[in-house]
Write a sequence for this structure.
């Protein structure tokens, strides 16, 4: 993959950028992207399914407003989603019409801006991924940079300074109508519990344009780190700098805290930031082993989150059968295999076994009575002696789930026939 250009970008050569944004082919591509991404309705309640007809009916009027620089977005609808590590994150859901317009702006700006961003930035960029960022982080550790300065920005998306951001946007965009439109999206407000709250700072997560704007804000951090000659990897607001000693790490942490809080007007979360060994920290769900040639492995917190999710999907009070549980598990297993199959450890095979054990436990609980359990075990070709031993065992369901009787009843081959996916096999395919 070619490195991104490191020089500053000259202003866009498209003097009439708004006309390019409103071009029919660009709007049609934006509509397809919004429909493909689905998502919830905004404050007006209009759904993605209704969007094509609404856009067709109202686009001439909206296009006229955009070309004249008079378009005013609607407030975003606030929703809270759980964070993987606990707590919640605020999302701002724009209306589907505003999502189309933001997407149309993104499609014109990203090709202009992205080539100018740092080669050390991996988040929300075409042709770049979290797994590439993880591989680069591993390479730094392998080279001997065995301390990491792990920086966590506190509520980054909520604290972006509008004036600083718009100054950076204005340096790249000559069309004042587009500048007014972007600022209007930043200040559109938030509908929360029936009341509209003003937006004085931040870029609401949930709109198509927010990731590009966040990269523009943090490009200033990337340039400073490059100027200092640091080895670093940034994915969105998750930034790791790799150094050779703890002393150097502490010095970098102190100076970057001053830069980020003084110059960028952002805050560092001291509780979540640290100078430590890379194998003591996680980055994008991975960590590395403490070996001469460090290997990638899945971070313990990610494994714990996976097990919590499997427990939730297989909880005994769901009132659904094993087949439905397997159908609900498979998207999780497929997604995990696609991402965490990048691990160089063997966690997926172990987690496959743990998931099967969880399903054996569920089946045992659902059978409830001794008579039903004996009948089902015999039906599944478990020998009489093993079936009797299982139903009269004083062990609880989880301990019994690893017994020979339940392994005979639910072999790996049987789970495959029931449709259960194997993460290990998917990752190796």
């Amino acid at each position: 993959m070619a490195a991104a250009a490191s020089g500053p970008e000259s202003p866009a050569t498209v003097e009439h950028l708004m006309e390019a944004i409103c071009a029919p082919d660009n709007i049609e591509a934006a509509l397809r992207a919004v429909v493909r991404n689905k998502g919830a309705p905004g404050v007006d309640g209009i759904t993605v399914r209704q969007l094509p007809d609404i856009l067709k009916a109202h686009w001439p009027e909206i296009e006229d407003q955009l070309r004249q620089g008079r378009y005013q977005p609607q407030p975003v609808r606030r929703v809270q989603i759980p964070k993987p590590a606990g707590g919640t994150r605020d999302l701002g859901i724009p209306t589907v019409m505003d999502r189309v317009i933001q997407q149309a702006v993104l499609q014109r700006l990203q090709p202009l801006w992205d080539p100018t961003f740092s080669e050390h930035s991996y988040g929300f960029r075409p042709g770049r991924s979290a797994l590439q960022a993880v591989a680069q982080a591993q390479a730094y550790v392998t080279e001997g940079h065995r301390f990491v300065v792990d920086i966590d920005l506190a509520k980054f998306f909520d604290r972006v300074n509008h004036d600083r951001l718009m100054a950076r946007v204005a340096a790249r965009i000559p069309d004042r109508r587009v500048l007014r439109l972007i600022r209007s999206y930043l200040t559109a407000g938030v509908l929360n519990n029936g009341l509209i709250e003003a937006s004085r700072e931040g870029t609401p997560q949930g709109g198509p344009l927010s990731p590009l704007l966040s990269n523009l804000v943090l490009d200033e951090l990337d340039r400073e780190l490059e100027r200092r000659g640091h080895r670093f990897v940034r994915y969105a607001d998750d930034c790791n700098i790799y150094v050779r000693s703890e002393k150097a790490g502490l010095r970098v942490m102190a100076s970057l805290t001053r830069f980020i809080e003084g110059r960028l007007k952002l805050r560092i979360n001291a509780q979540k930031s640290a100078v430590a060994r890379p194998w003591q920290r996680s980055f994008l769900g991975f960590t590395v082993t403490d070996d001469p040639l460090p290997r990638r492995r899945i971070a313990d917190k990610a494994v714990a989150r996976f097990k919590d999710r499997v427990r939730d999907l297989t909880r005994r009070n769901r009132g659904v059968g094993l087949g439905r549980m397997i159908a609900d598990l498979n998207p999780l297993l497929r997604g995990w295999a696609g991402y965490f199959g990048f691990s160089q450890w063997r966690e997926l095979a172990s987690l496959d076994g743990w998931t099967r054990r969880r399903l054996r436990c569920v089946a045992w609980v659902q059978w409830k009575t001794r008579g039903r359990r004996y009948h089902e075990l015999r039906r599944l070709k478990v020998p009489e002696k093993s079936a009797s031993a299982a139903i009269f065992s004083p062990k609880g369901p989880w301990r019994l789930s690893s017994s020979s009787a339940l392994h005979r009843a639910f072999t790996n081959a049987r789970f495959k026939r029931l449709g259960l996916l194997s993460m290990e096999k998917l990752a190796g395919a």
In short: Residues 1-13 have pLDDT under 50 and may be disordered. DSSP finds 19 helices and ten strands in the chain.
